[in-house]
Amino acid sequence: MDTEFIVPTIASRFPLRLHRHHQEILDDSTHYYQTRLTPLLTGKNDPPNAWYPHCGGDYASFTHPNSLIPNAKAIARYYMIWVILDDIVDNSTTPQEIHTPLDQLTDAVQGKTDHLPSAFQGITDLRNLARSYSPQTLNLFDTTILKWIDVTREMRVAEINRETVSCNQYMNRRGYNAAMPHIFACVACTSPQLACEFEAITGTLAYQEAGHLSGKAIGATMDLYSIVPKHAEVSDHSNVGHIMKRDLGPEATWQDVVDTVTAHIHSYEDDIARHFATIAQTHPLAARALEEAHGGSIMWLHCLRGRRYRDPDVNS
């Protein structure tokens, strides 16, 4: 049976740096998680393997290495809330289980928080930070997370219903569901200077295309690290590798699929690099911050192998 294959470590061409106050940011995330966020956990979460404090403190430190320290802590807290809700959605088996956390997140983004648990305060705090910089910064934050909510809802319902989609259809959605357009929006919340620069670039085609392509690259990497041949019944609808295996036909091996997805990831980065170069012509600080957000995200996914993603030594 064709189950033997090697998934390589995806290395990004873009720079990688860790925030020099990483440990302080992680300590804050750990304390915040332990004291504020555990009420969000349900039977749909797996705390020992979920690594939630690290999904906040480590990820924010990888993706926003130049952030002001209080801003990085606020972003890390927000990332934890978001990941917890996303895990509930990902592990849900009915439409209602999908809609409930996404509706709660929508209400939090729209400021309808009276009925929400206090654990959602971290969302309000980060929105207040964005608002303090400019209405445009807040609007960028809100519109990108609402887009993520809409696409994620669409994808999960389609998955539950076992809807067949092509690779192109799936990856177009994955480019938003993998959330990089929203991660890019969070970059604007890291300092007043970047908030100002982002006001000038977010309406450009280069910025918008870079965010969607970054989402495709990150989403494809997530899927690559999650390929499980024996889970085809579910994954044929929710993993680009499984969808590609179906589309390529019975002659294609799993190693063929892995190699093809890997080539697509590097092709996405070729295009991303061109868009970043366009942005850098007028706003080099913003371009550098976007490079670090993308490169840090690729590295973060590697750190999750053997934790939230499959062990790289177990690929059958």
Folded structure, characterized:
- There is one protein chain.
- This protein is mostly helical.
- 69% of the residues lie in helices and 0% in strands.
- It is built from 15 helices and no strands.
- The chain has helices at 22-37, 47-50, 52-63, 69-90, 95-109, 121-133, 135-160, 167-177, 180-187, 192-201, 205-224, 232-235, 240-248, 254-280, 284-303.
- Helix 1 runs antiparallel to helix 3, helix 7 crosses helix 8 and helix 13 crosses helix 14.
- It starts with 21 loop residues before the first helix and ends in a 13-residue tail after the last helix.
- The mean pLDDT is 93.
Q: Could you give the count of β-strands?
A: 0
Helical content (DSSP H or I, runs of 4+)? 55-70%
Radius of gyration: 19 Å
Q: Which structural class fits the helix and strand makeup?
A: mainly alpha
What pattern of helices and strands is seen along the backbone? HHHHHHHHHHHHHHH
Overall, the morphology is globular
| Residue share in β-strands | under 5%
Roughly how many Å apart are the termini?
10 Å
Overall pLDDT score: 93
Give a short account of the largest sheet: none
| Oligomeric grouping of the chains | single chain
pLDDT < 50 stretches = none
Q: Number of helix segments?
A: 15
